[in-house]
Amino acid sequence: MARLLKIVNDGVHKDEAFAWPDSESPVSIGTAIMPISRSGLFRREGSMVQLSDLGKDWLIEQDPSHLIEIFHEHTRFIGEILNELRAGPVSQRNLLVLASDKYGFGWTTPGPVHSRIKWMVAAGVVSTYSHSVHLSEGGRELLSKLQVYEPDASISSPTDFRPAPAAIDALMKRLSKTPDARHRAGGLHVPRLSGPAGIENIRAIVETCANPTDNRALMNKAIEVFGFGDPGASSVVGSLKIMGLIQRASADEWVATPAGAAWVTTGYDIDLARIMHSNVWYFSEIIHELEVAGRLTFAGLILRSGRYSFNGRYEPIKRGAMTSRMALLEATGLIVNVGNKNFKATALGRAFRRSMPGIDPVDPVSVSVQEVTSDSPKVNTADEDASTLPADISPRIADNVSSSTTEGMVGKIAEDLLQAAKRSDKSVDLEIAAVKALDFLGLPATHIGGNGEPDGIVRTRPGRLGSVYTIETKSAANGLVPEEQAKPATLADHREQHDAAATVYIGPGFERRLLDVLDGDARVAVVSTTLIAEAVMRQADTPLTAEQLEPLIDPSLREADRRDQLKERWKTKEEWALAMRGLVEVLSREAESPLSDDEFSPSGVGWLDITSMRRSLRDVLNREIPRETVMEVLDFLTSPQVSVAEMIDGRYRLRVASEAVARHFDYLGRRWQVGERLYRLKA
Prior knowledge:
This protein is of the alpha+beta class. It has a 5-stranded mixed beta sheet, with helices on both faces. A 3-stranded antiparallel beta sheet has the order 1-5-4. β2 (about 15-20) and β3 (about 25-30) form a beta hairpin. α13 runs antiparallel to α14, α20 (about 395-400) crosses α21 (about 405-420) and α27 crosses α28. The two termini are about 50 Å apart. Residues about 365-405 and about 595-600 have low confidence and may be disordered.
């Protein structure tokens, strides 16, 4: 560790290689520091890595115990492991269970626990033997110095919270009557807010204002607590005012608000969260979004703020203001970072959300590109870019864009994507449109954007079940992304930042030399916006699963080969749907004019075996349908949740009148809508 920090010290390029123990070949700096890149020891500026002040200080003293203390301040589940070991040894497997069940992490493999244990064994604060992790005396001594997060497992419903003091209760009642009275808090910035220490920093400022305090004294206190100069201290004071913790007593003095003073008296973190939510827009709503989605990235939560915009009155939140919200939610135990930049609501957070009056989000279907980026121009639905779609798809877009149906939404997603691809002066439009289109296709995507970052990430399957790909979008007014936009090194950097397996490179079209460079890279999937738009439009009639859509973003395919492979899958899906309709017709005809009981089993009339059905199906459809397809369709139709047909001893019979089958499937589709509505109401 000391050797690595000495090499990094004042700055080194992340790609610089050096000899690393137990490695047969040199290792890059970026690779070496990756497991501890968020430990607080390093900071990055572009492609350069250098030590933070904490890293430089530790390099001087090189105290192993202090190293774990630094890790604890910047990484969850360090001190918490030590705390769990106080009562006795625990196996690493059981620590993984605790991480998931008690602390809300979404870990499914032991890797994160193993890494932390290795750090602590090296520092001498724990030891491992007899298949368990044991706390050392040095670990006990270190634990006594740490502020450790302990989730309140006793809280499961709003009634489990302590009653709010009168001043805070008054804020909550006011919010119930005027939900739009909260401050947008677009400039909210409270540094060093993570963990219990962050809450204590806020408390120190509010306590200073127990009595009227002049401007200079309060600024000095903020500088002392947060370690910034006058501009930073002024920002903190202004943010605590927005949060409703302090207020002006006069032109030159500040004083704690009644609610702020009540929180300082109770020392109850939930009271702080109550005050924050009552005064600051988009706070417990973040918890609601995490409940609905299961988990989301920081960027995904920013994107969803548009659902609470009071019909566009509030612009979506910016990254800086979001950081303080997320830090306070984490510090109060209402959400937890489950790794890989994903957040999840805790049981405490879910109970808190239900205890507070809030804003109902707009329906997800109606969240448009304009709602998630304030500088997007209005879409001209008559734009002729739709003509760049294949002939069998493009006519449907114009018909659907203005519709309020699901098809209309689908058309708008495709139209937005095609238009944004030609809008080279508004590159963020294409970033958002591409993410929205991929997400609609069932490939979970999140917008990121910004300098030094990819435009987004997309997962090949939900959560950690698939691979992570970075998204890079390039718009071009003339429809062709030029050769100079092929930057393999930048794409590789972005993949490394997000531990991504590949890059999805999206644009309206591509110059031949660019395709030569990127199509030849086994980790880059070059995809045209035209093909994505076509996939979106076809999804309404021939829906493919994420697995079936693999050719769309498969990095092993060349751009020119993607559509042919997808066409085969669309054709297979259409054949399956046709076979289903044909089989229902065959079974319906048998129900109308069944053979006599003597020729079949005593189970009754209307039964057909596979051979009979295939023969009749050939007559109905004028084609041969493979036996495997027929069996797949019958398995679907006879499944318990569908039950259009029934099966006994290899024979099949219709259960729903053919005239009612369409309505039957419509009812099945509505089950999800009912479940979604009930799920939202439970909060």
